[in-house]
Design goal:
This protein is mostly helical. Helices cover 48% and strands 9% of the residues. The protein has a two-stranded antiparallel sheet. Helix 3 crosses helix 4 (76-91).
């Protein structure tokens, strides 16, 4: 977690992506709390060009999050990742997943 905080503070997106990938690998192999559909989404996100991706939430299904750069090509990077996930799900016979585009923002804090 501390390395992720440092990567965020330094805007080191490549490092953050690598940490996300390592975190998902640990969830998959060490804790065995992922499911095939989640692993498929994470793998497809990487194949589509995501800097990093991992499961989020309580485990055993649910959601993934992918870190996608918009610096080189704008929203085209997002579309490539989304299309890669959709294609992988279609090829596996799964229904199309729902995608939500989110942007980083300041966390919860006290207003004074």
């Amino acid at each position: 977690v501390e390395e992720s905080v440092d990567a965020l503070a330094d805007a080191d997106w490549a490092a953050l992506g690598s940490l996300m990938a390592a975190s998902h690998a640990s969830l998959r192999h060490d804790f065995q709390v992922t499911v095939p559909e989640v692993d498929l989404a994470v793998d497809a996100a990487h194949e589509g060009g995501a800097l990093g991706a991992r499961m989020t939430g309580g485990g055993f299904g649910g959601c993934t999050i992918a870190l996608v750069s918009t610096a080189e090509g704008g929203a085209g990077g997002v579309a490539k990742v989304r299309d890669s996930i959709d294609s992988a799900f279609a090829a596996a016979g799964h229904p199309r997943p729902t995608h939500h585009l989110v942007h980083p923002a300041a966390g919860a804090h006290t207003l004074t």
